Amino acid sequence: xxxxxxxxxxxxxxxxxxxxxxxxxxxxxxxxxxRAVAADAGVDPGIVTHFFGTKDAMFRAAMDWPFDPDDFVxxxxxxxxxxxGERLARTFLELWQGAESQPRLLAIFRSASTHxxxxxxxxxFVHDQLYGRLAEALGGADAELRVDLALSxxxxxxxxxxxxxxxxxxxxPVEQVVARIAPTLDGYLRTPRR
Amino acid sequence: xxxxxxxxxxxxxxxxxxxxxxxxxxxxxxxxxxRAVAADAGVDPGIVTHFFGTKDAMFRAAMDWPFDPDDFVxxxxxxxxxxxGERLARTFLELWQGAESQPRLLAIFRSASTHxxxxxxxxxFVHDQLYGRLAEALGGADAELRVDLALSxxxxxxxxxxxxxxxxxxxxPVEQVVARIAPTLDGYLRTPRR
Lengths: 194, 194
Hints:
Number of strands of chain A: 0
Oligomer: homodimer
Low-confidence stretches of chain A: none
Order of helices and strands of chain A: HHHHHHHHHH
Number of helices of chain A: 10
Helix content of chain A: over 70%
Largest sheet of chain A: none
Distance between the termini of chain A: 60 Å
Radius of gyration of chain A: 19 Å
Shape of chain A: globular
């Protein structure tokens, strides 16, 4: 049964996404609730849960966000400290190369670079869904600063390779770039010795 | 004598800048000539030289580019290899903190993130005026890739600190950030041993 094709259902889903985008844009990530989005679209909160599961998943659907932060964090920190920089570099670069994920990441990047509301929204989501978990897994007093440093290396790389398309790094094979930046990421993520 | 205040002269300068912006936008950096810009504004090429000196300086005036690439490269590579990462990090971060230079860098960053023509123009200028000289000073077969890697770290940092303003790195003192990223930059810039 092709449930997604029934016009009534896909219209409800679109109405929920429109209501979610408006709420997120107006209130930010933290203050937006599933209940309020449901009320805006004139449906029961259970319908939102039925379509999207959690607020986090509703946000990703509304923003066309191309990965699940849970899966991402698990893939990076799950196997332990050894090789973490390499896994982080490879996972990030592969998302930016992916035929499905690349245009979505580019759209989010461009919008966050130019619109303060988009930047604030993306920051809040990334902070709640990615930072906390990464920093907790790392431990240490300045864990969030260390995550920032690693993220700065990754974001700059995405900008040069995929937004500005600067050569020779834009055409360098993923594995060559992973080999160069993994030690940088490990250096930032390592818990400082006391 | 307040020469810049004579209305005829400042009008000529504005007309030249308008003509320069149009030429640069249409043809890019390399193919734009001082002669063509002068012709567009209906003046002798000597007038362009009088106002701006070189094509590079005319470009900086047209783009409101906040530093002289010559001075920048000299400050980084002049004193030699030792401490190069630290000088590069500090010079770059101070430009991004400067009351005059910060808004101009933000405008260039945003425009290059969203408009392909701006991105192409900035790339060409940076490549001609900064990359070549830095890569030459570094030496080694993959010098341009190493400059790209260093630039990716710096650009990502500018994005997190000044565009997205992500904490805690946005409020970290320049010297703390310099201490963390200087070893990364030195690692990238170092000539690989054979």
